[in-house]
Amino acid sequence: MGLTFRLVITAAFAATVLGASRDTFNLKPFKIDLSEGLPHLKALVNNTWLPDQALYPAAGVDKGIELDTLRDKLRTEWVTTFDWGKQEAELNQLDHFTAEIEGQVVHFVHQKSEASDAIPVILLHGWPGSFQEFLPVIEPLTQPLFNATSGKNVSFNVVVPSLPGFVFSSPPPQNSTVDDTARIFNTLMSEVLGYSTYAVHGTDWGSGVAYSLYSSFNETVRAAHFAFLPFTPPTAQDIADNNITLSDAQKVTLQRNAEWSTIGNGYFLEQTTKPNDIGLALYDNPVGQLAWIGGKFKLWSDPRAGSPPSVLDNTAILTSVSLYYLTHSFLSSVWIYAQNPNGFHTVYTPAPTDAPLLFSQYEYNLGLWPEEYVAKVGNLVSYKATDNERLVHDFGGHFAGLDNPPALIEDIRNVANYFPGI
Ligand SMILES: *[C@@H]1O[C@H](CO)[C@@H](O)[C@H](O)[C@H]1NC(C)=O
Ligand SMILES: *[C@@H]1O[C@H](CO)[C@@H](O)[C@H](O)[C@H]1NC(C)=O
Ligand SMILES: *[C@@H]1O[C@H](CO)[C@@H](O)[C@H](O)[C@H]1NC(C)=O
Ligand SMILES: *[C@@H]1O[C@H](CO)[C@@H](O)[C@H](O)[C@H]1NC(C)=O
Ligand SMILES: *[C@@H]1O[C@H](CO)[C@@H](O)[C@H](O)[C@H]1NC(C)=O
Ligand SMILES: *[C@@H]1O[C@H](CO)[C@@H](O)[C@H](O)[C@H]1NC(C)=O
Q1: CA nearest ligand 4 atom 2, residue
Q2: Gene3D superfamilies, alphabetically (predicted)?
Q3: pLDDT tens, 284-297?
Q4: Using CA atoms, how far apart are residues 366 and 363, in angstroms rounded to an integer?
Q5: How much is the pTM?
Q6: Contact 182, 212 (CB under 8 A)
Q7: Is 201 a catalytic residue?
Q8: CB 343 within 8 A of CB 366
Q9: How far is 332 from 163, CA to CA, in rounded Å?
Q10: Is the minimum distance from the CB of 245 to ligand 5 under 6 angstroms?
Q11: Which domains does the chain have, with CATH numbers?
Q12: What are the pLDDT digits (tens) for 171-208?
């Protein structure tokens, strides 16, 4: 009788605690269904006026996306062969949820490993990406892989949130910064999902959020991997002044950064200074969003994008733009630039943490961060690439999750070699 009583109390207590947590964050399973907007999208895409021929055919991609790429390839595929329903079904194979944190709706994928000792890891995307840019790496990271040398069986519980204002996450307050996003995501990992410690991976704006998590939550964030850093990359002059010798592959990346800084950052100034102009101009203009976003996917990826190991093909680009358009989130996505005018730190200072930091450089990324620089901002334990002599992954660009998924999977799995208790 006493035993029964205690069990009843325990069950009631557990129900209260779990109930309280669910009620507090309103955690709910989520399915993507954007079919309602599809006829409008298709009609607009099909009926958009575009020139019969390029104004200046010799201008080249330096002057922005080329007409034949936009009109004959991407636009034509969007109207004819692209199957949103198929893409949506693929995205829905993942376990999606929403939660309410600090009054904001946060959408996230939470794909759990079957292993009880899986490492929790949060993967953070940027602009113009979304959770979709990690699609190829999510399921593989949940699979246990035995390392005979260490005797460890490594797998991950993978969390991929949509940044505030991106696709299914609600727009944040106007004064919100990446530090607020970091606090919200730490609540997601620690309180909503109950992970006492976890690892982070970040790229683009997601690296800003990841670095804020790494710096500000040094008890819960116990390892961080970056494919991009929220620090202004050194110029050729800085590198020379510091007597750093670059490999040929690193020189390619340095050149990409020089081009970004001189002829590639118009979108950056626009979105930082007048987000409403571009945001409203393209709000209901899917072909416009395709030109603005698709041009970045084309320019910022490996020139071999779309051929193995890259899966960053036109279908991936159209899926990404469809997500932005159909969720009406292009406007709120570009605001992240205006909300974080100092998103790139100029002074390299160490984060107050002893958690290990890992970094991977992809050859066709937009910034080069030599090891000497990365070592200044945290407890650098791994500056890794497939070919360590070249100090870069020699395939892949700004969207590593799509452009070289096997390499990114390996990079993130490497976190296990440094994550405490595993
Ligand atoms: C696109 O527009 C053309 C010309 O108006 C029309 O013939 C065609 O059926 C439309 N295609 C789709 C998929 O709506
Ligand atoms: C690794 O973990 C998986 C899932 O827990 C298990 O099925 C498998 O037997 C383990 N492998 C080894 C070598 O321990
Ligand atoms: C396996 O473990 C060893 C020893 O910890 C480590 O050096 C090696 O990098 C690991 N291999 C992989 C693929 O993580
Ligand atoms: C940001 O704006 C909100 C109102 O939306 C206000 O309550 C809050 O105090 C502001 N925060 C800062 C840091 O200014
Ligand atoms: C670079 O090398 C030059 C010549 O050896 C030396 O004078 C200078 O102090 C070095 N700079 C740094 C930052 O190490
Ligand atoms: C964590 O951050 C706090 C506040 O900045 C600092 O006092 C503490 O030393 C840090 N812990 C580690 C292990 O670096």
Answers
A1: 175
A2: alpha/beta hydrolase (3.40.50.1820)
A3: 999 999 999 999 99
A4: 9
A5: 0.94
A6: yes
A7: no
A8: no
A9: 10
A10: no
A11: 36-422 (3.40.50.1820)
A12: 999 999 999 999 999 999 999 999 999 999 999 999 99
